[in-house]
Amino acid sequence: MKKGVFSLAGALSLILGTNLVMAGGTISGIVSCKGVKDSKDTIVYIEKVDGKFDPPEAHALMDQQSLVYIPHVLPVLAGTTVDFPNSDTVRHNVFSPPGSAKIFDLGTYDVGVTKSVVFDAIGETPLLCNVHAEMEAYVVSVQNPYFAITDKTGAYTIKDVPPGKYTLTTWHEKLRSASQEIEVKDGTTVTVNLEMKKRK
Ligand SMILES: [Cu+2]
6 C-alpha to center of ligand 1: Å? Predict the structure, then answer.
């Protein structure tokens, strides 16, 4: 998604023969996750931005290797198609449990086969495997393309955010969401550090 935005900007600046100045601001900071191994795989996103955001044509990827889903957490803009290639040496059966934003069951399929799912509804979809109880991952679909996922240190950056007042929110598979009201201004960076604790 972000790649798409950048290449479009690049193409436009080529056409215009000038450096295109991207409007919008940046949100960045650190999310501290308490009671878990590290602060990785926390999604930071703006709850709602006015407008309708078309999903990217490019598919997102949830791979399966050595009985592990890669990545463990995949944030997508609602409507995005996610490919589930079986890059493993054994058969898998990707499905989501009742209560998921997207309920589906891809059935058991062979090594080398790729199946796809459109994550059209906003929310959390846990991924399980009928063959391997230990396999688990998450696809989280959000309303707009202004989201990021943290690294081990909890650092994140969301770029090119239209100016405005928003609610910035976090998602973590085991922790309670944290939110903060923020204001984004053109050409500036707003620093937002958040702390997440265990769900009660
Ligand atoms: Cu499996």
Answer: 36
